Amino acid sequence: MLAIAILDLITILTIGLIVGIAPYIKKVTNNYFFWIILGAGLLTYILCCRFINQWQCFWSDVVPTIKDKTFDPSRIGDSLDASRGLLLDICPFTCVVIMFAIIVDPTRKIAKAIAPFGIFNCLITILGGIGQDDPQLTASYIFLGNSENPMYFMMHYLMLLVGTLVLVSAPRVSLKDWIFSNLYAGVYYLYVAICMTSLHLQYYVSGLNIGDWSPEGEYYGVAQFLNMSPQASAGIGFTFCYLIITLIIYGQNRLQWFKRYRWYDVWNKKQWYIGWYSFDSKNHHSLYKTSLNLNNWKQNKKLYLMFFFVVLIMVGLIFTTVGLGFLCNHGSLSTSLPLFIIGIVLLMTSTTWTIILINICKKEKLIDLNKKSIYNLWKLSQMIHQWRNHH
């Protein structure tokens, strides 16, 4: 346990160190060459020490058994080899994608959308101790891992390092970035679902199959900790993950309220590889005014669209509640999990677009909210309610 505690401490200190020094290395992190060198170096390191061997094993051992129909997805070893070869576990998948993103995208917008997943996956894996026993704290284990889990610590640690550095060295996360983050999650789980269905995999599919939450699965520790059925553990686990990732996104947004962390999210017209963002030394955060304009409600379609998404939020709440209820009552995972996921998608999509439309309507002065106007609107609704009761 001492080795795990030391690795946990290193992980926490790394986050604090990056957040602390980020304002003082802006010239470095604002240079595209820095990200090309960092991404290429780390991607090469990870590919050589982990993924190339696993892909060779997949093509030489797994693919022939799939062709001759001797592949048995109910065997943990077969599912594990297929999962590693196809990157069905979210940690390796996110690690490869974020390293590739900082190489090809000078704006780091793709990496910024993926970074919250990398940070959360690292924290829940290293600090939560998922998939690791008490290791011997040696240089070989730290940098190369062991035969069962190659680069177990270093892969997650580098994903945390890059993800944190991307978030604190980029402009504030916007609603568009939030949408891209949700889109990334949707595309990833769609990919996993297609592979899982095609090969009938039962284990190591990022929790989409009940096998991952059973005693043989990698998330059984979560089910034990919650002391619930695998179905209920899956529902609560996905909800918890989404909430924490959302909090990470919100934390990056709040961090840039501090002047030294602030950036302009604009194109800096210098050389294409230098100074992508401009440092924001002014306070551009103004509070909204204090009135509610009802004059244009019937004349603007944006307001009706906003109310439509509010209705969808309620529908999403219903789907999420029903799906979670089925999960907690030991319902079929094939029925309850799609309901739950549809509800979550409706919730996050509708909430995002509702906030976007509210901001648009505020800028166009269609609505303008404050405490006083909200109180007056509440009084008006009470008067209307009393009038209806009398008539």
Explain the layout of strands and helices:
Layout: H1 2-21, H2 26-29, H3 32-67, H4 76-86, H5 90-104, H6 109-127, H7 139-144, H8 152-168, H9 175-199, H10 220-226, H11 230-255, E1 263-264, E2 278-279, H12 301-328, H13 333-363, H14 371-390
Antiparallel strand pairs: 1-2
Helix pairs in contact: 1-8, 3-4, 3-5, 5-6, 5-8, 6-8, 6-9, 6-11, 9-13, 10-11, 11-12, 11-13, 12-13
Description of the structure:
The chain has 14 helices and two strands, in the order H-H-H-H-H-H-H-H-H-H-H-E-E-H-H-H. The protein has 391 residues and is mainly alpha-helical. Helix 9 packs antiparallel against helix 13 (333-363), helix 11 packs antiparallel against helix 12 (301-328) and helix 11 packs parallel to helix 13 (333-363). The protein starts with a helix and ends with a helix. The model is unreliable at 281-299 (pLDDT under 50).
Question: Which characteristics define this entry?
Answer:
391 residues, single chain, mainly alpha, two-stranded antiparallel ribbon
Which stretches are poorly predicted, pLDDT < 50 over at least 5 residues?
281-299
> Given the helix and strand composition, which structural class is it?
mainly alpha
The rough form would be described as: globular
Instruction: Report Rg.
Output: 24 Å
Count of distinct strands: 2
Compressed to H and E, one letter per element, the order equals HHHHHHHHHHHEEHHH
Helix content: 55-70%
Amount of beta strand: under 5%
Distance between the termini: 71 Å
Question: Mean pLDDT, rounded to whole units?
Answer: 76
Widest sheet, order of strands: 1-2
How is the main sheet built?
2 strands, antiparallel
> How many helical elements?
14
